[in-house]
């Protein structure tokens, strides 16, 4: 490492005793298989975002619908212009047909070009796009689910996490975290919007999986995830989050961002598991993450992760469980139930 020029890489290596190991922590799960599957252009990253066209297409469709609705309303209010409007539509149709004919004839008359411009753009797009695993947080329940199951897994992303972890990542922790790290480093070094979306989706997916957090099947996964996220947050300044891209959906707190909200959700999930005697292995990494974000970003994650929490259930004379202090804790503050009369 000391033989490298510290300014020739994608990131600085000064001082090498601390900077280089920090970058290793950001990529220790990225393997050659991750690079091959995510960066299809032999490891090269292009600024093209494959989701931009889809979003622009949806926006254009919405705009077209609005324009059609306005045109229909104008036609209804002005009946006298019906004939002229009809004539204009006929003229537009003729012009569109003429343009379509020209587009069809153009490739055959072009000289020295074997492919049309749209075909070339599609070829470039396929060779330069970054391909992440699709994650739809809005469809976080199984197909065919109804009623209570839809409600539960719309809030708790555990079903979606388990489904993706077993099907897309083949129950391999390094495969999941490798893509997670690839998304983060691509976002950090290349300012790639698609990579940011993937990192955001994967962060929310894990942190909002309340049912999976205390599960023994995911213990090693959550330990590695918390350590990875801690290393990522330690590598970026606090000003990195002062942007609309990081804004959360909580309109009551405009200063919050999705990372802070997600970490608080993760903390509550771990505390809930600890109260029931589960996920004790998550105390140490979560305590370190809690300390780090408080020092760097002044984000307060509630909960004491220093010692094991036990839940004692008292029984009254009628064999009815009495409410414990932990149950009372859930009824306080912003998580208290709202009584509608």
From TrEMBL:
> Where are stretches of biased composition, namely Polar residues?
106-116
The gene it comes from is AAR2
Matches recorded under Gene3D superfamilies: Aar2, C-terminal domain-like
Sequence ranges of Acidic residues compositional bias: 94-103
Provide the AAR2 C-terminal domain boundaries: 132-301
Region described as Disordered: 58-122
Segments traversing the membrane: none
Give any single GO term for biological process: spliceosomal tri-snRNP complex assembly
Q: Which domain of life is it from?
A: Eukaryota
Q: What is this protein called?
A: A1-alpha2 repression
